[in-house]
Write a structure and sequence with these properties.
Blueprint: H1 10-22, H2 30-40, E1 44-47, H3 55-58, E2 65-69, H4 72-82, E3 90-93, E4 106-111, H5 122-135, E5 136-146, E6 156-166, E7 170-181, E8 186-197, E9 200-211, H6 215-224, E10 227-233, E11 248-254
Parallel strand pairs: 1-2, 1-4, 2-3, 4-5
Antiparallel strand pairs: 5-11, 6-7, 7-8, 8-9, 10-11
């Protein structure tokens, strides 16, 4: 049985992505990625750049910067946000499993906020790690940020999980359900965004699907793909990781003699 493609739902999510993330992750991860880009000094690529939440701040620290995303509505919002950045940023509509860049084009690839968990099949994860390996120069760095341990999230149905204003005249409520598919290691978020403007009411419904590997499982896949895991972090200040950490960040270096992906 095939997994639900992880890219489904993201076009519908675009109008609400920044609103929700301002109330959850906020900007707590932004300084980490900016410091990493500034320390590397070379060209930077962000996978699944979405609305430019991370990409726009990175533009102040990377001389050359690119973002790739599959969703046109997400990229349209990123383009508007990036008009205010100090230098041009290349935005590409594409699939992260087949990156449209030359070999060795980047010094740093950023996979923030669980983007690799949207790859719901092992085949797509292998293809993405292979594509990233090719896009990095020898010694280049891949930074991965995983949402911790999604399979242990409790299932619930139609919970009003967030509510708040957007602008002066609009109020949004997120009604969310969580389903688990343990056999395929999938966590499905059924989203219902209700927006009210005066007496008008609009409802948008869609689902987002994520697949989770543990940090050791991801580390083994990185090693098979020709990377050396430099560090596993449990916060955005460089603290050590354990299974109870609120942040799962992996930093992996492309080996000089890349092994490529293999089964």
């Amino acid at each position: 049985m095939h997994s639900t493609p992880g890219w489904l739902g993201w076009d519908d999510y675009a109008p609400f992505y920044d609103w929700e993330n301002a109330r959850t992750v906020g900007r707590r991860d932004v300084a980490f990625w900016c410091d990493l880009a500034r320390g590397r000094g070379g060209p930077v690529l962000e996978l699944g750049c979405g609305t430019g939440r991370i990409l726009a701040p990175l533009a102040r620290h990377a001389a050359t910067l690119a973002g790739v995303d599959r969703s046109d509505p997400m990229l349209a919002r990123a383009r508007r946000r990036l008009r205010r950045t100090p230098r041009p940023v290349l935005l590409v509509r594409g699939d992260i499993t087949t990156l449209p860049f030359g070999d060795g084009a980047f010094d740093l690839v950023v996979a923030s906020y669980g983007i690799l968990q949207s790859l719901t099949s092992e085949r797509d994860l292998r293809a993405t790690l292979s594509a990233v390996h090719a896009a990095l120069r020898p010694g280049g760095l891949l930074g991965i940020d995983l949402v911790p341990d999604l399979p242990r999230w409790s299932e619930y149905s139609r919970r009003a999980s967030l509510s708040g204003r957007r602008g002066r005249d609009s109020r949004i409520t997120l009604i969310e359900s969580v389903r688990q598919d343990p056999r395929r290691r999938l966590t499905i978020f059924d989203q219902e965004f209700v927006e009210r403007r005066g007496r008008a009411r609009r409802v948008r419904r869609f689902s987002l699907t994520f697949r989770t590997l543990s940090v050791p499982q991801m580390a083994r896949r990185l090693e098979r793909a020709g990377f050396h895991v430099q560090a596993v972090l449990g916060d955005y200040r460089g603290g050590p990781w354990d299974e109870r950490a609120n942040v799962w960040v992996i930093l992996a270096e492309k080996l000089d003699e890349g092994l490529g992906t293999r089964d």
